[in-house]
Sequence to fold (453 residues):
Amino acid sequence: MMIDNRKLGRLEQAMETLNSRAKTWNILTISRIKGPLSEETLRRAIDIVQCRQPRLNSRIVRSKNSLYFQNEVTTKIALRVVSKLEAQQWQEVVDEEMNQEIDSSKGLWRIVLVDILSEKHLSYLITTVHHAIADGLSCIRLHSEILNYCHKIASGEVINPVASLTPLPPIEELLPEWTKGLKGKISSIRFFLRLAFQKIRHRPKTLGFEKYAPIAQRRCNIIHRQLDPELTQQFVNRCHQENTTVNSALCAAMMFTVARKITKVNRKDVRVNCLSYLDLRRHLELEINDEQMAILASSIMEFYTIQPNTSFWELARQVKQKLEARTKQGDIFNMMLIAKHLINFCFLQPKEVAATVSVSNIGKVNIPKVYGAFELEEISFAGSHSLYAGMFITHASTFQGKMLLNFVFSEPSISKNMMEDLINNFMSCIFDVCNLNLNLCFTYDMCISYSDK
Fold:
């Protein structure tokens, strides 16, 4: 097995700070599996995957005031098996997992197998992975890899020793040359100041705090929703017709929902901001193997003014244009460089709400559905965002034509009742823009029918 003990990069250090101080930003991935998946089969598959993915053998140690990855060849990853009566009770397990930090001195991930008693051969595989070693996309692929080995083990196939993938260096080393050295420092400082100025000038509205609690006392909760395949396809088709992307339309729906919630009379401008997460892989010069685990996601924060006559699709196109422009300018790299400072700011100013909304959409999940006797019926992911109080947050994935949405929220800043109300309004917004021949405007009484154009 390849040993790769090294110092954590800046972004990796920031993720460990979030894990240890706020139980936050670890990646939870949830698979609904049909088939006779046993604890023994899963245990053996996990052991093989650990041999192949070097970072899954790592722990984090402190030495001389620095943090290091240290590989532990004999480490057994925690596997817990629980039984639940009904399928929807997987959300209870996720709630437990996202409110428990990862003991990074022992390992960087853990697994729960949830057996559903009311349905034969139905189970949920839930992994919690430290964000310093993975992002949503690599965790989705991890589940596919585990199921692939479960199939081989269950079918009695002889599995030869697997080769370990080459561990990636700190993400900062993979970024373009202009992000490094003095030039990179100047660029990141200018970017940080520009972002701070935009926030001060724009002063975006947010949900704020229903009830304030210090960071250590905050809890993360999750509510799951789905768009059926027909509605998902309608949504995708409408986005194409309107010359925008699904991600941009999700951002627009989230912002519309919050703006309507915080503005009782929808006849004035509402300033908001949106934090959008993007896959870095296709923006790097070095080709990254899709199977390699690493934190290869960045974000872009952009500011918007929703006016009474702002249409839904107009806002979605605006989001698309701004994201494309900011990506072209290199903001996705600058956000990686200043991430540690932004996170430190959240700890220094716990009453500050980072953004109005946040959307992390990995899009269409391109992994197999069938693994021999095991069928992957659904797969989705979520981040444990207890630190991010007062934000409307969703994590989206589309598998087998169905969009799955995990809305996470920090309690008590947002109550479950308020979150359910927001989500219902969000789902209604998606339904309306798909099924009504209307260009939905911020004020409901100002919708323009296409037939009237």
In short: The radius of gyration is 22 Å. The chain has a mean pLDDT of 91. DSSP finds ten helices and 17 strands in the chain.
